Write a sequence for this structure.
């Protein structure tokens, strides 16, 4: 039982040390890069929202027209 705890603590310690080493290798983006990509994401979200709004409206009106046409018969 003591060996299992020792092995567990050692593996946690090894994991933590490897994590620290890996985080030092990470190249973080600059503030300007983050702002630029954030702007692109926000613009894309609004563009897709507008696109899906238009498509939803067109398909909704088309399906209502079809249902109205067949309902009158």
């Amino acid at each position: 039982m003591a060996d299992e705890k020792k092995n567990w603590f050692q593996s946690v310690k090894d994991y933590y040390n490897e994590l620290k080493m890996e985080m030092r290798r990470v190249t973080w983006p600059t503030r300007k890069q983050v702002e630029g990509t954030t702007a692109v994401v926000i613009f894309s979200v609004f563009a897709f929202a507008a696109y899906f709004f238009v498509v939803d409206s067109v398909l909704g009106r088309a399906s209502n027209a079809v249902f109205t046409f067949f309902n009158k018969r």
The two ends are 81 Å apart (CA to CA). The chain has a mean pLDDT of 93. The chain is about 90% helix and 0% strand.
